[in-house]
């Protein structure tokens, strides 16, 4: 399927940086961390997170609609509405059979599960909501989007842990290449900041414990990094074949020109120490794009702010890409959005390519002496013809998107 040119004609975001593309992009470009003390985690071992600010689903979706949706689906629908408006597409007028939905998610709706578990313990199983399963199942992410927008084509949720959003975009691109769809709504969404899930991450030692200064806790590639800060949100892209987008006169924000996926086959949580798995995905994405390792000018790295991941990824980039690209990790601002991370970062990479702006890596105050790549410590304006967006997940899942200018 190499050679298929896929246009990004619309984008939508719900992130800790704001509800919408414009506020998120402004926050990311500012390099201002969104991490803060989280009252809902007050009894947890780690009590900081990156929450979406001011998200009122009753206002944004309507109280009746919101009542039947877990938070991870609410995020996706709000972001999808923005993306469709940005693309200039009206679901009332399209051929739904030619519209696909491919979304990424890591863990469904734990907020609903935990709430209903409390109900069962306190009031008995007879009081558990009949909406428990329809609200928390991961596939409801794509299912509810199809219901909302009348998309009756292929409908999928993919789960590759923290690579889920990027994997979904790669699968969506393949559907267009195979002529299964003319339009695909794709991306990812996640809402895992619950007491149980965050306790699990804390017990693994994955989270930063810099609670005395939460705004400095997420610090990708910094020598003093000690773990990630969990975030939440959604990133949605509207994909069309480039020729179709141009025929209808759509604005093209960027192009998905390559996709690579791989498995470390190494460990259930730790990355391969040499970055061999993500290197394979990078090389596959470049081959798919018909590009060489010297042509990449910018990388939006996975860069989680964990000691092992950042080192392995940085060493891989140094070894693999010969053009000395400018690297950033936007997780310093947004935190780690887990299954939505790859989708949100794909949108941010599209914006970088479209506007010629590389946002800073927040909290990079003491560069790790063991890391020898060019990291953006401040916002940088530069023309970008080709960029990569890297994503990795537990289980050794890797997904890389090659994104080119319009």
Descriptive notes:
There is one protein chain. The chain has 14 helices and 16 strands. The chain is globular and about 60 Å long. The strands form three sheets. Strands 1, 2, 5, 6, 7, 8, 9, 10, 11, 13, 15 and 16 form a twelve-stranded mixed β-sheet that branches. The mean pLDDT is 96. The two termini are 20 Å apart. The chain has helices at 21-30, 57-61, 63-66, 71-87, 110-123, 132-136, 140-149, 164-177, 195-204, 242-247, 276-289, 307-320, 331-334, 341-355, and strands at residues 6-15, 18-19, 36-37, 48-49, 99-104, 155-158, 183-190, 233-241, 254-263, 298-300, 326-328, 357-358, 374-375, 380-381, 386-393, 397-404. Strand 1 (6-15) and strand 2 (18-19) form a beta hairpin. The chain is α/β, with parallel strands linked by helices.
Strand content bin: 15-25%
For the largest beta-sheet, the strand count, sense and barrel status come to: 12 strands, mixed
Query: Which spans of ≥5 residues are poorly predicted at pLDDT below 50?
Result: none
Number of helices in the DSSP assignment: 14
Number of strands: 16
Terminal-residue CA separation: 20 Å
* Shape call: globular
List the secondary-structure elements in sequence, H or E.
Answer: EEHEEHHHEHHHEHEHEHEHEHEHHEEEEE
| Rg over alpha carbons | 20 Å
Task: Average the pLDDT over all residues and give the rounded result.
Answer: 96
- Helix share, percent: 25-40%
Task: Briefly note the structural class of the backbone.
Answer: alpha/beta
């Amino acid at each position: 399927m190499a050679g298929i040119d896929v246009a990004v004609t619309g984008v939508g975001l719900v992130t800790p940086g704001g509800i919408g593309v414009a506020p998120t992009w402004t926050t990311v470009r500012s390099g201002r961390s969104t991490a803060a003390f989280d009252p809902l985690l007050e009894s947890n071992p780690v009590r900081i997170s990156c929450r979406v600010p001011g998200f009122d689903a009753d206002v944004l979706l309507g109280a009746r609609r919101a009542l039947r949706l877990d938070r991870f689906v609410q995020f996706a629908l709000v972001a999808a509405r923005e993306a469709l408006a940005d693309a200039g597409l009206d679901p009332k007028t399209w051929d739904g059979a030619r519209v696909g939905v491919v979304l990424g998610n890591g863990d469904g709706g734990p907020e609903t599960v935990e709430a209903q578990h409390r109900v069962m313990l306190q009031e008995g199983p007879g009081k558990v909501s009949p909406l428990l399963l329809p609200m928390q199942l991961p596939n409801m992410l794509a299912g509810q989007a199809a219901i909302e927008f009348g998309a009756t084509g292929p409908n999928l949720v993919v789960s590759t842990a923290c690579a889920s959003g990027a994997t979904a975009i790669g699968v969506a691109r393949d559907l267009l290449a195979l002529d299964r769809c003319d339009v695909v709504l794709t991306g990812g969404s996640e809402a895992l900041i619950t007491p149980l899930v965050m306790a699990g991450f804390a017990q693994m030692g994955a989270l930063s414990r810099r609670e005395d200064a939460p705004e400095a806790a997420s610090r990708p590639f910094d020598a003093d990094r000690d773990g990630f800060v969990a975030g939440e949100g959604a990133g949605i892209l509207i994909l069309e074949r480039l020729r179709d987008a141009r025929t209808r006169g759509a604005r093209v924000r960027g192009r998905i020109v390559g996709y690579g996926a791989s498995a470390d086959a190494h460990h259930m949580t730790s990355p391969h120490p040499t970055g061999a798995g993500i290197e394979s995905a990078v090389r596959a994405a470049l081959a798919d794009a018909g590009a060489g390792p010297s042509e990449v000018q910018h990388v939006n790295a996975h860069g989680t702010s964990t000691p092992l991941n950042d080192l392995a990824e940085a060493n891989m980039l140094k070894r693999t890409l010969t053009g000395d690209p400018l690297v950033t990790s936007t997780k310093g601002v947004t935190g780690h959005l887990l299954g939505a991370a790859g989708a949100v970062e794909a949108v941010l990479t599209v914006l970088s390519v479209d506007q010629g702006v590389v946002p800073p890596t927040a909290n990079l105050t003491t560069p790790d002496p063991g890391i020898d790549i060019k990291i953006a410590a401040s916002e940088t304006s530069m023309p970008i013809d080709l960029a990569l967006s890297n994503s990795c997940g537990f289980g050794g899942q890797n997904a890389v998107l090659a994104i080119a200018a319009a």
